[in-house]
């Protein structure tokens, strides 16, 4: 599990560690790791450090200090290093070290800054780190804008300036980096969008903080975590023991969602899928997935669960419709004691009547930002800007496990760390991929995982499968070697990504 922390948690740990070490030790560890990362990056793009042009953007705090010391190390290896001092002051010892190593420094001036940045092989962003508060002030905002057009590599120090390290919130201009070198521990804002999308690759430099960090409120499962949680059949398994998933989805108008949800469940390893819907949807599901056992629901019929047969978990909602019959089906399924995943139209019914969630069995809700906004009655933009806060609030208020879909998928449950999904690709932003996700998570619920684990494993596998489908290979893509996918491709890519875990 990759754990992540708020700025306050990191600061407290740093204070505790610093009290036991000679002054300057931590900054020296940070600067050394940062300089090594820049050396490796320069070696990759230029072949050597000597003669490369490095520009440091320096703010008034210790973030600037890190950049100045790292810049001094690069200058000592023959790089031409220029520091742009953008703050009201600069870290004095760092500045002296840079100058002693042959680097130069000057106060910010717009034209000179533009010229330096546009000629740099590498720009180091040391404007603000975990001491940042609110939107970037001038001239930092202008510098973040200049960096956007920089032809060279952009390396953010600790956190891209303009990204709130504790939440991932971005209010105004921010530095968009190719790489972020972060110290001591991951900050939450580096893993959660919108902040995460400003980081590029994130490299963690160990400065010895580990023993001083508290229990994490946010964690990102790794491939190993997911592999360890996934159910796999044993010698004595049969289809019932592996887990039977009931899916109630689709309608006369929406047949595709049902096909996709069933596909996700089958490819994710459900022992059996029992699918129930109106005739039109059943026809499409049967044609594509002869493995599913189907039940045709007469229009308007209720009291149907016994007809469908025994299951270990339910998925309800994709393409189901928002009318009263659909509502009755959602209510009937939520009336059982079994684990239930509610998605799509099912969420509309729950948003209209939260009392549907008063139940004894475990519930997993899988909204996208718009659906979560409706569940909480807040603007969608607020959910997108402050995803962690809203997914936590939903789990608390609704008494359910909540998986919030989107560019960073999050899973929240009361009293548990929010799980951040680290896989995925923007190619997944295409109609129907969410339906596939519902089937994957449903299969894992039926296989015995808790809502929390089923949701986080499903998001992980779904993201990997999306990447594999876009790349045409479970082993990932060469840069630029990706192409558009259809939702069903995601389901079809699942077995390969599970094999490669
Ligand atoms: N505390 C420690 O033990 C360590 C800290 N390190 C570095 O120190 C950084 C934190 O340093 P600081 O606490 O000095 O804080 P920062 O350097 O992150 O920022 C504080 C400064 O930025 C200004 N500022 C804040 N928000 C701003 C905004 N929106 N626009 C413009 N200016 C703004 C403040 O007025 C203050 O002068 C970390 O991110 C990391 O880079 C590392 O050296 C590792 C060890
Ligand atoms: N920009 C993005 N980057 C990564 N994943 C995304 C992005 N946009 C959407 N997704 C993923 O694609 C899926 C879309 O699901 P959803 O919004 O329910 O669409 P649909 O209802 O069409 O299936 C979710 O798993 C979501 O996390
Ligand atoms: K920074």
From TrEMBL:
Binding site for AMP: 405-409, 434
Function: Catalyzes the epimerization of the S- and R-forms of NAD(P)HX, a damaged form of NAD(P)H that is a result of enzymatic or heat-dependent hydration. This is a prerequisite for the S-specific NAD(P)H-hydrate dehydratase to allow the repair of both epimers of NAD(P)HX. Catalyzes the dehydration of the S-form of NAD(P)HX at the expense of ADP, which is converted to AMP. Together with NAD(P)HX epimerase, which catalyzes the epimerization of the S- and R-forms, the enzyme allows the repair of both epimers of NAD(P)HX, a damaged form of NAD(P)H that is a result of enzymatic or heat-dependent hydration.
Self-association state and partner proteins as the record states: Homotetramer.
Amino-acid positions noted as binding (6S)-NADPHX in the UniProt annotation, renumbered to this chain: 62-66, 129-135, 140, 158, 257, 319, 368, 435
Cofactor: binding comment: Binds 1 potassium ion per subunit.
Domain of life: Bacteria
Residues that coordinate or bind K(+): 63, 125, 161
Name of this protein: Bifunctional NAD(P)H-hydrate repair enzyme
Organism field: Microtetraspora malaysiensis
Metal-binding listed as a keyword: yes
Alphabetically ordered keywords of this record: ATP-binding, Isomerase, Lyase, Metal-binding, Multifunctional enzyme, NAD, NADP, Nucleotide-binding, Potassium
């Amino acid at each position: 599990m990759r754990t992540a922390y708020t700025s306050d948690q990191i600061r407290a740990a740093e204070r505790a560690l610093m009290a036991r070490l000679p002054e300057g030790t931590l900054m020296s560890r940070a600067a050394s790791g940062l300089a090594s990362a820049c050396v490796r990056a320069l070696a990759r793009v230029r072949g050597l450090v000597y003669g490369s042009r490095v520009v440091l953007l320096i703010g008034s705090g210790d973030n600037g200090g890190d950049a100045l010391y790292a810049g001094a190390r690069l200058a000592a290896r023959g790089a031409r290093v220029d520091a742009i001092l953008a703050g009201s002051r600069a870290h004095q010892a760092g500045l002296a070290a840079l100058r002693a190593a042959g680097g130069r420094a000057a106060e910010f001036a717009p034209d000179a800054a533009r010229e330096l940045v546009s000629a740099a092989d590498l720009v180091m962003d040391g404007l603000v780190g975990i001491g940042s508060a609110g939107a970037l002030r001038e001239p930092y905002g202008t510098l973040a804008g200049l960096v956007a057009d920089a032809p060279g590599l952009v390396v953010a120090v600790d956190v891209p300036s303009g990204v709130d390290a504790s939440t991932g919130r971005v209010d105004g201009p921010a530095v968009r980096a190719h790489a972020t070198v972060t110290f001591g521990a991951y900050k939450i804002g580096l893993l959660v969008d919108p902040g995460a999308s400003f980081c590029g690759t994130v490299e963690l430099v160990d400065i010895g903080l580990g023993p001083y960090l508290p229990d994490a409120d946010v964690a990102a499962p790794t491939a190993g975590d997911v592999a360890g949680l996934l159910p796999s059949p044993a010698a004595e398994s049969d289809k019932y023991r592996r887990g039977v998933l009931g899916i109630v989805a689709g309608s006369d108008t929406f047949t595709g969602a049902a096909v996709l949800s069933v596909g996700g469940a089958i490819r994710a390893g459900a022992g059996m899928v029992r699918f129930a819907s109106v005739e039109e949807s059943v026809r499409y599901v049967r044609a594509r997935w002869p493995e599913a056992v189907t039940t045709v629901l007469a229009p308007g019929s209720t009291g149907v669960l016994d007809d469908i047969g025994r299951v270990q978990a339910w998925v309800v909602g994709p393409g189901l419709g928002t009318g009263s019959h659909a509502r009755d089906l959602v209510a009937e399924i939520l009336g059982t004691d079994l684990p239930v995943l509610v998605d799509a139209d099912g969420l509309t019914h729950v948003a209209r009547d939260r009392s549907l969630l008063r139940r004894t069995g475990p519930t997993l809700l899988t909204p996208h930002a718009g659906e979560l906004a409706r569940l909480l009655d807040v603007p969608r933009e607020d959910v997108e800007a402050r995803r962690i806060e809203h997914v936590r609030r939903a789990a608390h208020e609704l008494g359910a496990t909540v998986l919030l879909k989107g560019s960073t998928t999050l899973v929240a449950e009361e009293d548990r760390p929010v799980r951040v999904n680290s896989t995925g690709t923007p190619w997944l932003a295409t109609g129907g991929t969410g339906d596939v996700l519902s089937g994957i998570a449903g299969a894992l619920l039926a296989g015995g995982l808790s809502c929390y684990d089923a949701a986080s494993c499903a998001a992980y596998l779904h993201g990997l499968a999306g990447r594999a489908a876009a790349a045409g290979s479970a082993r990932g893509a060469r840069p630029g070697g990706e192409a558009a996918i259809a939702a069903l491709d995601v389901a079809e890519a699942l077995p390969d990504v599970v094999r490669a875990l």
